[in-house]
Specification:
The complex is a heterodimer of chains A (373) and B (210). With 373 residues, chain A is mainly alpha-helical. Chain A has a domain of 148 residues. Chain A is 74% helix and 4% strand. In chain A, strands 1-3-2 form a 3-stranded mixed sheet. In chain A, a hairpin with a 2-residue loop joins strand 2 and strand 3. By secondary structure, chain B is α+β, with helices and mostly antiparallel strands. Chain B has one domain: Beta-Lactamase (2-Layer Sandwich), CATH 3.30.450.50. Helices cover 40% and strands 19% of the residues of chain B. Chain B has 7 helices and 6 strands, in the order E-E-H-E-E-E-H-H-H-H-E-H-H. Chain B has a 6-stranded mixed sheet with strand order 2-1-5-4-3-6, with helices on both faces. In chain B, strand 4 and strand 5 form a beta hairpin. In chain B, helix 2 crosses helix 4. The C terminus of chain B is likely disordered. Classes of the chains: A mainly alpha (373), B alpha+beta (210). Chain A: GO terms for molecular function: CAAX-protein geranylgeranyltransferase activity; protein farnesyltransferase activity. Chain A: InterPro entries: Prenyl_trans_a. Chain A: One of its GO terms (cellular component) is CAAX-protein geranylgeranyltransferase complex. Chain A: Pfam families: PPTA.
Chain lengths: 373, 210
Amino acid sequence: KQQDQERPRMESKEAAAAAQAEEDLLRDFERILHDDPLIDEVGFLHPTQFHSLLVDSTDKSTSQYFWCVDHKLAVSSSILPDLYRAARRAHSNATLNPSSSPSASDAALIMTHSKALLILCADLLTAWNSRKMVLSTNFNLSHLKDELRLCALILSYSPKNESTWSHRRWVIKNLAQHLQDMPELIDKESLLVKDMAEKSKMNYRAWRHRCWLIPYMKTKQVLDELNKSKKWAELHVADNCSFHYRRSLLLALLDGAANREDSLICQSEAYLMWKEELRWNETLIRRYQGRESLWNHRRFLSQWWVQHLLSCEETSLSNESLADLFLSQEIHLLSDCLGAPGDEFGETRVQVELAALYILWISEATSSFTNPS
Amino acid sequence: MKITALVVLKPSAGGAGGSSSSGGQGSEALVLANATDVSHFGFFQRGAAREFIVFVARTVAQRTQPGQRQSVQHEEYKVHSHNRNGLCVVAFMDDHYPVRSAFSLLNKVLDEYQKAFGDAWKAATADSTQEWPFLMEALTKFQDPAEADKLTKIQRDLDETKIILHKTIENVLQRGERLDSLVEKSSDLSAASQFISKLQRALSFSLHIV
């Protein structure tokens, strides 16, 4: 009977020891995060890889599970489950009695524990929301900038994480209400997306974030962005997202032409941009065979262009149809594609298919403009 | 378009297959010059990435015969290799870099290497640690394939040369060779990198079953 009584006591002692070990891990983790607020990259390494990091390191750090040098943090994946459990527990305890105006010490605890938790698992919306609650109590510029840094840190290893991008937008909306120099902030965001896109291809969420910034831009910045993002798009012709971004910028120009005080400037800029974009797109189509994103972009450009030319003709005195002229140039492009010599990579064949589809599409689109039924 | 690496190598005369880079029967190609840009990898993956690049470059170069041009699809890279009279250049480019432009660049690298170092490479018996600034500059300059296209004076020459395509790196290997054993024997890959390689292959194997 005594043995029966002892067993649960032994088990609860073991459980208590395990919980203590987990809390120690969390404390170490949070201390490292606190000591270096400029950490910009985290890696979760398999113990084999982590071990070689420790061996190579000149600075014999005291922890056997964490390594932090030059703002780069490595965590051994062997302790992740324990660390996560501890962070989850700590965060739950801190948010037991949610308040719209927590005390300073409560707020600090929430922020510390949620930060640790989110770095381990960025999808926990509860954790993100607890941060929003604390940040909403009053406007604090440096705290909001810290928030941007935390998002950038998580994105460094989880570049497609929607919860993080979403939280980042919440922060920017807050900043927009109080900041004067939005253009600078937008510039930095655009640059961040560009760097992310370089490291993770076809990152729809990053590019969508960049598109989300467009309504905050004035005409001048829209034009700047078109110019600045051109080279990148040229060097990443398979990445449809960057062309989608350009389309959004061009549409913003058109919107400006319709709705804003500087509408005349917008309109003439839009016309010039469009013409240049068509020319540039053709150069790329000829250089990179069989790239669907280039042809998609051309459809978008041609559609508006043809409509624009047709509406010009209504007021024009000349007999020559500019729209017809444009279309015959497009057919010329098609025949060049058809005539290109075959290659063993099959790219010419794809190019021919895409060109043919494009011509079919545009002739249908044009006839629907001229004969709306 | 990304050029991740340009490597100049001297394939060993003894034929393919082997472990060390210090010559002898069944050895692998020697590295004469290496320019690598792994900045787009996460900080903690860069070391392993560099190691893999050297390993793949050696493996492909050793299996590119004199006069041969070949392109291998390896994950999201195309690895292009050209062996001209025993001197081999291997380039790691992303999937969308036009293949013909890639080989124009390889030609240029070979020309420049011979201009800079003459025939000294023929006597090489070990990896060279000599710096060659041109190679690193080329990585940046020729990111835009349009620059590489300017190099080809006579397009017809390049159009007529045959380029062998391989869908996987296993297809480059000789009969009886297995990538796993090459990985294990390679002195280029640290224990950690070998482990990662095994893990990757185990994962892709299980994906194929599904």
